[in-house]
Amino acid sequence: MKQIIIVIVLFLLTLPSFSQNDSVFVRKIYDEALEKGQAHENLRYLCKNIGARITASAEAEMAVRWGFELLKSYAFDSVYLQETKVPHWERGTTEAAWISNSSNQYLKLNVLALGGSVATNGLIEAEVVVVQTIDELKTKSAKEIKDKIVFINQAFDQKFINTFSSYGHCYPIRANGASEASKLGAKAVIIRSLSTPTDHFAHTGVLNYDETIKKIPAAAISTKDADALINWYAKEKIKFSLEMDCKTYPEAISYNVIGEMKGTKDNKIITFGGHLDSWDVGEGAHDDGAGIVHSIEALRILKQLNYKPNHTLRCVLFMNEENGNFGGNTYAQLAKQKKEQHIAAIESDRGGFLPIGFDVRGTDEQLKLVQQYQKLLFDYDLLKFKKGYSGVDISPLMDEYPEMIQIGIAINSQQYFNYHHSHADVFETVNKRELELGTAAMATIVYLLDKTLE
Amino acid sequence: MKQIIIVIVLFLLTLPSFSQNDSVFVRKIYDEALEKGQAHENLRYLCKNIGARITASAEAEMAVRWGFELLKSYAFDSVYLQETKVPHWERGTTEAAWISNSSNQYLKLNVLALGGSVATNGLIEAEVVVVQTIDELKTKSAKEIKDKIVFINQAFDQKFINTFSSYGHCYPIRANGASEASKLGAKAVIIRSLSTPTDHFAHTGVLNYDETIKKIPAAAISTKDADALINWYAKEKIKFSLEMDCKTYPEAISYNVIGEMKGTKDNKIITFGGHLDSWDVGEGAHDDGAGIVHSIEALRILKQLNYKPNHTLRCVLFMNEENGNFGGNTYAQLAKQKKEQHIAAIESDRGGFLPIGFDVRGTDEQLKLVQQYQKLLFDYDLLKFKKGYSGVDISPLMDEYPEMIQIGIAINSQQYFNYHHSHADVFETVNKRELELGTAAMATIVYLLDKTLE
Q: Do B35 and A158 touch (CB under 8 A)?
């Protein structure tokens, strides 16, 4: 008898926690995504018929209407807009930069104002001071920096396997470079683009002004131009010339776009989404058109397969991740106000590349809960289950619901920062099958969480 | 005492089988590959200064000399050529195909003769008969096929997660389509390209004539053209027109190119490599320039890190994988003749995309031996360890040494058949970091096997 019990216990210990039905259903999700997927055509529409869609632009408004009509066309249980205030910054029509030397040689640079930057108010020119990092900038005296244009040259550390780590290390030069340089009296700050390769694309992105310090113009130049500048600077003093007429306008009104399948068991909510806004260059294909079509397609596939969820499955196209996260904040505040019960949130905001697993933001137990799917998903190349960050849009929701589980779709990161926030982020760089595998990964994790979570 | 023993046994059972030193060394491999890697520049040279290099072409001869000089430049213990006979087939200068209908409308097609095809001897024209698969072709009568041109339209099954499975299922139409159609008296056979996307590229590749049956011309048209042909064919009878002057010449002499680091403990050999030849279109970037630079770079990195191998580490640039595997066969025969001791072989022939793990061709115990590295390699995104195929070049070696372990580097397969055997397989489609991660994966598995195997 004891032996039998031991055998039974061992058997139970080795039993996969998913059922044969789950395995069959996941296969159906992948078949639908790979054979009849609409993600690629939806992304083509968003990129080519709408394009770049910075918050408060006409294109962002078009994207809201497109998302709303597309969700309605799938006849989900409920499709609606959620109003949110949003910031309004525009690049303007003038943006130019060059360097020159004592021999009156000139080099025009590929430049993009950082998002939120103030204008130069005409052409400004000053001697360049180069620093490698924010920390080096902080060691400088006001005498060294005053009336100069500071160039911060910190490059991606190529040793990180995950390029988001390289990005994280460089992030402070974009976020804080302007205020740190301004403290020392600089005229403007220029940064090396936060980008993996050495090429001609400048990469924009939000900066955070310290409101107590004078705001100075800030821009990024391409990595190739950064190398050229460093070469010139090594030989002699150089002058930087910059003109930008970007401008911040009063806050505007925009919307999160939401589609739902109602829960059959309760009103608890599983949120999943990406962000509908993008920067104002390129087409926002990987950032985050991919996450948008991943999410819409996940809900479409589950409906198409006639799945009846236990909990409410809510697909959210968040507005304004890039420069303020107003949409994500509004979503969390309204959830709390309405006393909604949120049990899980999943975000896709790492591009349309090959999905490789799931990053779990939560407790050890929540990680283990997700790891039990690992064996089921091995054949789908979803292989990396670990603790990690979930996403900016759903982060405020976790502040309101600290008990919830949050998941970020983990995606091959190697090429993301080739395109991110630049003119290079266009539809053609997204592979159809990799995008479709992303939609299937999203649908699968939503399905498995709905089945698993109480 | 008993308790202590149990604790010790449990401790030993949970000990990772790799050491802290291994962990440090693997990190050094990745640092070298990602920060000071030469794979990308080597691939650029091979693709841009040499280009497509079909066996017995002037470019294949240049590639042999390039590989030999590059290996010598790294001052390995031994660098040498291994003579092998090779087949010699040339595409010629005329290659054209179109379809036409009763209204004298014409559609020119993107076409490539299959490797080894006979010529048409001038323009040939015939009515088209469409079949979907080889099996359907076999159900046809000679009356239906005689003097017709057969078009086999089998498309990739998009449901397979790994595209090599889709390729495997379609492979018979390319390999055997001509002989099966000839049995029934067809004038020629045309196939839908073995390719994942629907686009304008035709994809070539070897065919296998049944020597007992009359050889008829065989070619592939692009997937877009295949769809167009099917549309025309649905409406009325159509005529196919084809002219190709490809030709097979007498066998020639070429070389495998070999570089070695000698073992400090014994003369047992770990072989690793890819193939130096390519098809005669594109630049052979993913197939298999990537495997070539993965392998050369793996040996360079291990030498650069001053590693003293236990066994002999032998990097082999195989000649003629694409149409005959003469180089792989020669290598295995000479190994046996010389009574070499071969304990392991690793191949990279799945492109320069993101490596995701290792396919082990061997016993359960050999799979387990490799799986013990899994924890060590988790942070490097090498996640999928399973049984699978190793590679064509090293396959004859396994026939001679059935006890050996063979490994294929498993690589994200989603985009491989967008480029494979077509004009699209060019340097620009290879991402630098993904290529470098492939070199690190190769160096790492060679290192770990050298440390582990007796």
A: yes
| Contacts with A, B 196-225, CB within 8 Å | 196-197
Q: Among A187, A218, A245, which residue terminates a domain?
A: A245
CB B419 within 8 A of CB B287: yes
CA dist., res. B444 & res. B307, Å (int): 12
Closest CA to A218 of A199, A238, A242: A242
Under an 8 A CB cutoff, do B30 and A432 touch?
Answer: no
A283 and A254 in a common domain: yes
Residue A3 lies inside a defined structural domain of this protein: no
Q: Between B356, B380, B414, which is nearest A434 by CB?
A: B414
- Domain co-membership, A330 together with A431: yes
Instruction: Note whether B161 contacts A356, CB cutoff 8 Å.
Output: no
Q: Which of A24, A353, A413, A433 best tests the B interface by mutation, with the highest count of B CBs <10 A?
A: A433
Q: What is the CATH number of the domain that holds A280?
A: 3.40.630.10
| Assigned token pair, B160 | 């397979």
Please report residues of A whose CB lies closer than 8 A to that of B197: 432
Check B158 against A437: CB less than 8 A apart.
Answer: no
Provide the whole-model pTM. 0.95
The β-bridge relationship of strands B355-361 and B405-411 is: antiparallel
Closest-CA residue to B97 (of B129, B120, B116): B120
Mutate to test the interface with A, among B158, B379, B431 (most CBs of A within 10 A): B158
Tell whether B282 is covered by a domain: yes
What is the Cα–Cα distance from A258 to A78, expressed in whole angstroms? 8
Of the partner residues B159, B197, B380, the one whose CB lies closest to the CB of residue A35: B159
Q: Do B298 and B446 sit in the same domain of this protein?
A: yes
Tally the domains of chain B.
2
Are B159 and A412 a contacting pair at CB < 8 A?
A: no
CB-CB: which of A31, A384, A412 is closest to B159? A31
In 3D, which of B242, B171, B248 has the Cα closest to residue B203? B171
> Do B35 and A159 count as a contact with CB atoms less than 8 A apart?
yes
Domain boundary among the residues A187, A222, A245 is at A245
In a domain, A361, yes or no: yes
**Same domain (yes/no): B260, B293:** yes
CB pairs under 8 A between A and B: 70
> In terms of domains, do B406 and B358 share one?
yes
Q: Is A71 exposed, middle or buried (0-12, 13-18, 19+ CB in 10 A)?
A: buried
Report which of B288, B253, B246 is spatially closest to residue B116, judged by C-alpha positions: B246
Q: Are residues A133 and A235 in the same domain?
A: yes
Place of tokens 């036409």: B100
- CATH number of the domain that residue B145 is part of: 3.50.30.30
- Domain-located, residue B124: yes
- Inform me whether the C-beta atom of residue B371 falls under 8 Å from chain A C-beta atoms: no
**Whether the Cβ atoms of residue A211 and residue A239 lie closer than 8 Å to each other:** no
CB contact residues (below 8 A), chain B span 291-330, against chain A: none
Q: Which of B357, B350, B365 is nearest to B415 (CA)?
A: B350
Task: Report, in this order, helix, strand and coil percent for chain B, each rounded to 5.
Answer: 40, 25, 35
Judge if B138 and B46 occupy the same domain.
Answer: no
Q: Which residue range is the domain that position A214 belongs to?
A: 93-245
A34 touching chain B per CB within 8 A:
yes
Along the 454 residues of chain B, how does pLDDT read in single tens digits?
455 544 444 444 444 456 889 999 999 999 999 999 999 999 999 999 999 999 999 999 999 999 999 999 999 999 999 999 999 999 999 999 999 999 999 999 999 999 999 999 999 999 999 999 999 999 999 999 999 999 999 999 999 999 999 999 999 999 999 999 999 999 999 999 999 999 999 999 999 999 999 999 999 999 999 999 999 999 999 999 999 999 999 999 999 999 999 999 999 999 999 999 999 999 999 999 999 999 999 999 999 999 999 999 999 999 999 999 999 999 999 999 999 999 999 999 999 999 999 999 999 999 999 999 999 999 999 999 999 999 999 999 999 999 999 999 999 999 999 999 999 999 999 999 999 999 999 999 999 999 999 9
By Cβ distance, the residue of B356, B383, B431 closest to A415 is B431
Based on the fold, state whether residues B412 and B424 are members of the same structural domain. yes
Q: Please report residues of B whose CB lies closer than 8 A to that of A432.
A: 197
